[in-house]
């Protein structure tokens, strides 16, 4: 175990006994990232067993090699990559994984290297220019799976992905037709936006897919419903994932595609949100504002920039007996923007020197950390206790019931 931890760049704390309270007792000066391999593994097995098709992991949500190994070990064989660096990372970490290059706007050099150096055969596109680029860069390869990305609504999602990518209805007919001629297998893909709060988002997008197939009258081999599967956060508790899977399955079954066509999805957030959390120290209290040692330039980008609320818990023993009240946070950098408005509910007597756990940071939080202004830390510890909330266990850890929802 020692060597494994070292190889993965993790702390060598014994993984079976360490709990979040043990970490706080050590009074770390820097923020500490806690990882929960069992939570990521549980999420991956859930998708592998219950999604009615193939689940590929969207690597951008959290590219940690340790996490990639866990997902691979739990049955995730396909990986959605968006840059040549992600191609290299996954190819090096998981040499037998299948990579799909699902960014619709790529450098020709990246396409060529992915195809010739790393055996990538699946590419997405949303324009005729990109199609021609892929055909040229792969030297007119005849073994390509080409996925045409449709533009769909993000109205049911917390983070829009509706403006940047995707062919508009007027463009899809010609694009599907031309991609069909260049491809060995033709796919249609979309992304409903991240943290889709209702299965309706997928049902509506599948209607766009149906219209596009009927309009272009092409044979489609792959339907890829993209990412957007939610996790659970204060004030954002989605319906069970099974409901999403049922809706998608029903819509897929009624599409005019051949019996041998495949259904794919590309979850990022849903596979890794529960994987990690952080332990931070309160450095100062000013009324209902807490100055903590991680923030917008660390793991809390979404909390600062889009007002995302993450679950929080005061790590004090014996437990505080004060009632909860709402707080906002300031991060450690000298920048006014390093502010997380919350509200984050904590006992009213929280004070400088206290430690907090901030949960559900495995997706995007960990991936977007920087070292701006000399803050941040790579210290990572494996813990065995449950995440602060979970979509995959009925019986959540006790603190989950303290999470205030508005
Ligand atoms: C970001 C992204 C995903 C993952 O999205 P989540 O909302 O994290 O599930 C999947 N596919 C593509 C093409 C993406 O850009």
UniProtKB/TrEMBL annotation:
From the UniProt record, give the pathway where this protein acts: Amine and polyamine biosynthesis; putrescine biosynthesis via L-ornithine pathway; putrescine from L-ornithine: step 1/1
Cofactor(s) the record lists: pyridoxal 5'-phosphate
For this protein, the record's SUPFAM superfamilies field holds: Alanine racemase C-terminal domain-like, PLP-binding barrel
Stored CDD domains: PLPDE_III_ODC (cd00622)
The UniProt record lists the Orn/DAP/Arg decarboxylase 2 C-terminal domain at: 278-358
Extent of the signal sequence: none
Q: Which reaction does it catalyse?
A: L-ornithine + H(+) = putrescine + CO2
Q: What is its EC number?
A: 4.1.1.17
Family that this chain belongs to:
Belongs to the Orn/Lys/Arg decarboxylase class-II family.
**What is this protein's record name?**
ornithine decarboxylase
- What organism, scientifically named, is this protein from? Sphingomonas psychrolutea
């Amino acid at each position: 175990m020692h060597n494994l931890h070292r190889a993965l760049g993790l702390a060598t704390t014994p993984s079976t006994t360490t709990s979040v309270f043990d970490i706080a007792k050590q009074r770390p000066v820097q923020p500490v990232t806690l990882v929960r391999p069992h939570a990521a593994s549980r999420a991956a097995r859930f998708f592998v067993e219950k999604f009615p098709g193939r689940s590929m992991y969207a690597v951008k949500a959290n590219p940690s090699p340790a996490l990639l190994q866990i997902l691979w070990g739990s049955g995730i064989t396909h990986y959605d990559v968006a840059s040549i660096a992600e191609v290299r990372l996954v190819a090096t970490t998981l040499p037998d994984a299948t990579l799909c290059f699902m960014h619709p706007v790529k450098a020709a050099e990246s396409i060529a290297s992915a195809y010739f150096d790393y055996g990538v055969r699946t590419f997405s596109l949303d324009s005729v220019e990109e199609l021609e680029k892929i055909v040229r860069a792969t030297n007119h390869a005849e073994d390509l799976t080409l996925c045409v990305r449709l533009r769909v609504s993000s109205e049911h999602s917390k983070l829009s992905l509706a403006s940047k990518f995707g062919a508009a209805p007027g463009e899809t007919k010609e694009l599907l037709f031309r991609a069909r001629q260049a491809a060995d297998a033709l796919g249609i893909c979309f992304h409903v936006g991240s943290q889709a709060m209702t299965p309706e988002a997928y049902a509506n997008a599948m209607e766009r897919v149906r219209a596009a197939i009927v309009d272009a009258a092409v044979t489609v081999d792959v339907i890829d419903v993209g990412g957007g599967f939610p996790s659970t956060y204060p004030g954002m508790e989605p319906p069970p994932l099974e409901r999403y899977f049922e809706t998608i399955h029903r819509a897929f079954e009624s599409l005019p595609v051949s019996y041998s066509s495949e259904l794919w999805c590309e979850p990022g957030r849903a596979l890794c949100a529960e994987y990690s959390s952080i332990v931070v120290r309160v450095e100062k209290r000013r009324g209902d504002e807490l100055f903590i040692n991680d923030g917008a330039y660390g793991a809390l980008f979404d909390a600062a920039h889009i007002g995302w609320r993450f679950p929080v818990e005061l790590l004090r023993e014996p437990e505080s007996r004060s009632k909860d009240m709402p707080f906002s946070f300031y991060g450690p950098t000298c920048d006014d923007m390093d502010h997380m408005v919350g509200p984050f509910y904590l006992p009213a007597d929280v004070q400088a020197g206290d430690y907090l756990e901030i949960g559900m940071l495995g997706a995007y939080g960990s991936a977007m950390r920087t070292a701006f202004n000399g803050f941040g830390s790579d210290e990572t510890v494996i813990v065995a206790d449950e995440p602060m909330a979970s979509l995959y266990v009925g019986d959540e850890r006790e603190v989950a019931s303290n999470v205030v929802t508005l």
